[in-house]
Amino acid sequence: MKFQEIGQLALALLTQFGLKVLGAIALWIIAQKLIDFAIKLIRRGFRSQNIEPTLINYLLNIISVTLRIVLVVAILGFFGVETTSFAALLAAAGIAIGAAWGGLLANFAAGAFLIIFRPFKVGDFITAAGVTGTVAEIGLFTTDITTPDNVLTIVANNKIFSDNIQNFSANPFRRVDLLAQLHHDVDHNQAIALLKARISQIPNVLTNPAPDVEILTFTLAGPVLAVRPYCNNEHYWQVYFDTNKAIRETFGEAGYPIPEQRYAFNFPSENGTSSVIPSSVISS
After folding, report:
1. Model's pTM, two decimal places?
2. How far is CA 42 from each of CA 48, 58, 113, 248, rounded to the nearest angstrom?
3. For 205-226, b where at least 16 C-beta lie within 10 A, e where not — what string?
4. Vertex 47, ends 113 and 28: CA angle to 5°?
5. Is the distance from CB of 188 to CB of 215 less than 8 angstroms?
6. Per-residue pLDDT of the chain (284 residues; tens, 9 = 90+)
7. What angle do CA 92, 93, 96 make, to 5 degrees?
8. How far from chain centre, in Å, is Cα 235?
9. Any bridge partners for residue 227, and if so which?
């Protein structure tokens, strides 16, 4: 009689436990479908608001992980597991993982801030963390930058966010900075006028603002001109090289002499003073 009662009790417990397992499985399947459906609705809502795709992925990943953690806790509570201690254990595990993966979490947070504040976007030409190139992708932990020599460079997001960022694509145009050395005997006003006229004819050089050509400094060879045309970012290197050619061709066609350094030598005189004689006089 006792064995029969024990058997009935065991059967009742197994039945109850089996029903709970089946219920938990059903809850997991239904909840997973609901979570996936909710994620799709949220994604569609974000896209309708023209939010950055990378930011959408960030937010959806966070929401998806959070909902699944809540689902696991709910299922454990359904089985009678004390969820308070489980939450404390989960928090302790999170702290341990955070300490061990501090660098990865810092990169993740920096990536989120890069997406939110948007100092640059995919396709921009930037200098960040000592790397100059075109942004190919902004990832969860790293940013891919293709340098001008077509080398893909992967930079940690935290390194980018904690350093200065130069975005050459943010403004509608940029300036090309070049130098032109003149000979001492060349009329600088004439050289400036010739260069301005020649540079204005270069394709993709902007007329507003107009190119700047002015005396920047002086050297032993003569005055140095600052040659500064403006152009759109995608035409920078074309304008850069064409301006160098224009400087060379303009000075050559004008017949300007090749710049050369002049030195002055001090020679003591009979009365104890020194006289300065240009090197050109000595060489003649």
Report:
1. 0.59
2. 10, 12, 21, 60
3. bbeeeebbbeeeeeeeebbbbe
4. 90
5. yes
6. 456 666 666 666 666 666 677 777 887 888 888 888 888 888 888 777 776 676 677 677 778 878 887 777 777 776 666 656 666 666 666 666 565 556 777 888 888 888 888 899 989 999 999 999 999 988 878 999 999 999 999 999 999 998 999 999 999 999 999 999 999 999 999 999 999 999 999 999 999 999 999 999 999 999 999 999 999 988 999 999 999 999 999 999 999 999 887 655 555 555 554 444 444 434 43
7. 90
8. 20
9. 178, 213
User: What length does the chain have?
Assistant: 284
In the 3-class helix/strand/coil scheme, how is 103-166 assigned residue by residue?
HHHHHHHHHHHHHHHCCCCCCCEEEECCEEEEEEEECCCEEEEECCCCCEEEEEHHHHHCCCEE
